[in-house]
Amino acid sequence: MTYIQPMSFAKFAQSELIGYDYAVETLPVGSMENQFRDLQLQQMDALLAAWKAAHLSARPRSGWVRAIRESLGMSAAAFARRLGMSHAGVRKLENAEASDAITLASLRKLAEALDCELQYALVPRTSLSQHVKERAESVARERLRPIAHSMALEDQAVQGPLTKLQLELAIKELLEGSRRELW
């Protein structure tokens, strides 16, 4: 794949051209795909960072719906009328939320009746980038283990810094390749 690349400042300072370097450079075919994939990962990490930084409190034992409804001073009967359902239906949905058995569609409907917005996210314990790197290291170790064992049996084991280099190269190869190989 070829493309025209803007000239770096150092190159610009040494040249007589003003503007762009029109020399065509060739990159490996997967390079742009890898850059896009890495950018996508960074953007998702940035998006999720706001959720992680929010340090949201745990859901009340009775569930958010019942807690908010009661805080508003709204009876279950009044809430049922707003939803166009029976009082028993409201109790069933509130109990379903409290026991993690409610659907997102039902929770969204209850939230709208309380004039609330349902916000939903999966918030990783570590950054996605870190998770990918850790997984690549784990897969690389798994792949190298049988090879190292066979070589040790043949008295050809790779020692010290070379073992570390071998691991680093395997990790780099995994990170630059298809992420599907990590899973």
Work out the helix count. Answer: 8
The average pLDDT value, as a whole number, equals 84
Number of strands: 2
Q: What's the SSE pattern? A: EHEHHHHHHH
Low-pLDDT residue spans: 1-27
Gross morphology: elongated
How many domains, as an integer?
Answer: 3
Percentage of helical residues? 55-70%
The SS-based structural class is mainly alpha
Strand arrangement across the biggest beta sheet: 1-2
- Assembly classification: single chain
Rg from C-alpha positions?
Answer: 28 Å
SS strand fraction = under 5%
How far is the first residue's CA from the last residue's CA?
A: 28 Å
Major β-sheet profile: 2 strands, antiparallel
What does this structure look like?
This protein is 60% helix and 3% strand. With 183 residues, the chain is mostly helical. The protein has three domains: 2-53, no CATH class; 64-113, no CATH class; 128-182, no CATH class. The longest helix has 26 residues, at 128-153. The radius of gyration is 28 Å and the shape is elongated.
